[in-house]
Amino acid sequence: MRGIEIQQGAMFSYVSLEQRVPKKHPLRTIRALADAALQEMDGALTVMYSHTGRPSIPPERLIRALLLQMFFSVRSERLLMEQLDYNLLFRWFVGLGVDDEVWDASTFAKNRDRLVDHDVGRSLLAAVVAQAKKRNLISDEHFSVDGTLIEAWASMKSFRRKDDNTPPPPSGGSNVEVDFRGETRSNATHESKTDPECRLYRKGPGQESKLAYLGHALMENRNGLAVDGCVTQADGYGERNAAMAMIDAIKTEGEITLGADKGYDASEFVERLHKAKVVPHIAQNTKNRRSAVPAVVAKTDGYAVSQILRKRIEEIFGWAKEVGGMARVKLRGLGKVDWRFTMTLAAYNLMRLHKLVVTPPATAEVSLRCGT
Questions:
Q1: 222, 148 in Cβ contact below 8 A?
Q2: What's the rounded Cα separation, in Å, for the pair 227 and 125?
Q3: pLDDT at position 171, please?
Q4: In 63-209, which ranges are E strands?
Q5: What is the predicted pLDDT for the residue at 88?
Q6: What's the rounded Cα separation, in Å, for the pair 78 and 229?
Q7: Pairing with 115, which of 28, 43, 180, 331 sits 20 to 30 Å away (CA)?
């Protein structure tokens, strides 16, 4: 018999949010992992706030909401607040009740800036890595490093001479017609008036120059988890300097290996690795030159394995850009872009840990857009 549509809704609901989320939903595992990491960060989160005044958004809920934004590619915080208003799954993950009021987007953004000021992205990444170490999922001997281009939230029209303080014409608004034909532009003489910290850069010969930053990640080779990351201004030395800084931060007494592509095959960089007791498993660049990587190292079995595993770091960058929103970051300034990048690496690790810790891929019944 055909059912009859009844428009009148029930006044009360006796089904809790906990009951509405499937037992095998990937977000349940990710929520447990995130909560464990946030518990380790409790002391660091406490010092961010004063002991007087009105209570702000709890930082744990703020961080969980930002993780959802990355998992589901929500392109703005205004849309994120809209989702939190009617999406029961989002409410459950963040920790909001069915009747709890959702924050205003501007209030949320203001509280987010507090996370930027206290470098919470890096703290979260370290806490998630610590959770992986407790489960013996992190290699402490074999690593890979690489960098990627992060397009800045600035137009090429904003890239003008540093001494050019001419305001835009009264007609036509800010998006005026600009003719750069015949003009030589470089970072030495020009800067973006929208984001002065970004740089004009191209990744390789024949590629388009863009206003961008460089994002760097250090990956352990056992399960492809990001153990460190940072963002620098885009220049020809940024990748190697950032790689050395991340390697120096590793606390280990034994010898470690570092896999990388041909861009890192420079004598100065390889020499710095030797001094740090790091074996350079770097792809040899022998095009019209001699590689700085010793032949005795390049002939080892470990070197061959590193050359295979190092390419997995592209999975991190691919997820960060396609899902996490890092292809063109919607924030300005090196500090904010660095915070967002490290937060995205932490989100990627949580997604990977879901697969590694609890749910084998063959038995997963529910899949996230983030690839789990």
A1: no
A2: 7
A3: 58
A4: 142-151, 159-161, 190-192, 199-201
A5: 93
A6: 27
A7: 28
In the predicted model, residues of the chain with pLDDT beneath 50 are: 359-372
For the segment 124-163, what is each residue's pLDDT rounded down to a tens digit? 999 999 999 999 999 999 999 999 999 999 988 889 888 8
Give the DSSP H or E segment for 128. helix 120-134
Asked if 121 and 342 touch (Cβ cutoff 8 Å), the reply is yes
φ, ψ of residue 259 in degrees (nearest 5): -90, 145
